[in-house]
Design goal:
about 220 residues, alpha/beta, four-stranded antiparallel β-sheet, elongated
Length: about 220
């Protein structure tokens, strides 16, 4: 599970990351509303933790933009203001839950768990053709044959399966998998696509990763239009 934390208080952001990573979640951080929206719209996060008081865009404005672009990831909104009108405004902006600072870490973890469970089967696996990607076990399976993926292989495959056959530019895969601030280059994508092609073949998958010059990669499967 990957969680985006949008919080301009860096010590608090670091504490949240340490807490969540200690529970097995992957985390990434943004420190202003505009950057938070850019990250959220990559579509790779299972949950967004969003502070209200942020530079550039406040949390409510950010939530509205995220929802306007059809990003359905749950949003847990954090605020130092707990009045009813503030909570109502946050929920109307697109938040799924509203947590007032200071909060008990047990309550935060309970909220995170509840919001992730609310997505049900959508977060258990992705399928394409005769192949399934297990989101909890990081495995790729075809019938009774399966193979475990490295963290990078998993993230690249998740991007491709989530695109449902649409082309993904290499730049998009780089941003989603390696992050905006990474020094990774397009060759890194090509290398991991090569690894995935071999692993798909090893389990007898009918799924192929096709390259389209200047357009990136997409999935195709025998028998699918």
């Amino acid at each position: 599970m990957k969680i985006l934390i949008v919080e301009d208080d860096r010590p608090l952001s670091d504490s949240l990351r340490a807490l969540l990573e200690g529970r097995g979640y992957q985390t990434e951080a943004a420190y202003d509303g505009e950057t938070g929206v850019e990250h959220a719209l990559l579509g790779v996060y299972d949950l967004i933790i969003l502070d209200v008081m942020l530079p550039k865009l406040d949390g409510r404005q950010a939530a509205r933009q995220i929802r306007a672009r059809k990003c359905a990831a749950p949003i847990l909104m954090l605020t130092a203001r707990g009045e009813l009108d503030d909570r109502v405004e946050g929920l109307n902006a697109g938040a799924d839950y509203y947590l007032t600072k200071p909060f008990d870490t047990r309550e935060l973890l309970a909220c995170v768990g509840a919001l992730l469970r609310r997505q049900g089967g959508q977060v258990d696996q992705l399928t394409f053709g005769n192949t399934a990607l297990d989101l909890d076990g990081s495995t790729l399976a075809c019938g009774d044959r399966w193979v475990r993926l490295s963290a990078r292989e998993f993230d690249v495959m998740r991007c491709l399966m989530g695109a449902k056959g649409r082309n993904l530019p290499k730049e998009t895969i780089l941003a989603r998998v390696w992050g905006f601030d990474s020094n990774a280059v397009e060759n890194h994508v090509e290398v991991y696509v090569g690894f995935l092609r071999k692993k798909l073949a090893s389990i007898g998958s009918n799924v192929r990763i096709e390259a389209v010059r200047r357009l990136g990669y997409h999935l195709e499967a025998d028998g699918l239009p």
